[in-house]
Amino acid sequence: MGKPAQTRSLPSNEARAVLRMLRISPQKLNLVAGLIRGKKVGVALADLEFSKKRIARDVKKCLESAIANAENNHDLDVDDLVVKEAFVGKALVMKRFHARARGRGARIMKPFSNLTIVVREEAQA
Description:
Blueprint: E1 14-22, H1 26-36, H2 41-49, H3 56-72, E2 81-99, E3 105-121
Antiparallel strand pairs: 1-3, 2-3
Helix pairs in contact: 2-3
Organism: Salinarimonas ramus
Protein name: Large ribosomal subunit protein uL22
InterPro entries: Ribosomal_uL22, Ribosomal_uL22_bac/chlpt-type, Ribosomal_uL22_bac/org-type, Ribosomal_uL22_CS, Ribosomal_uL22_sf
């Protein structure tokens, strides 16, 4: 008597990886995620490798995880993979306080983000 296995939410030719609690604002992370949307996996990895953005390292790690999931868990061919989706979501926001002049204070918001990358195997024409 256990729970029945959860049905797979993605089609059989797709795999995904989720990276949670990244310490960067969703707006900044979305700039890097936009670099890889719709590209072949090899090109996307090269773009992230040579990007000057700090967060590109973490996005590359997530993309490599999605590729490994596709290869090991779903038996997809790595050479035919394309980044179908790369979307960003909000996570918590740490609120901090910065002392200002005349006894005032300023709020500092330190946002966190979630990143989801979905790769799809597309047959070569």
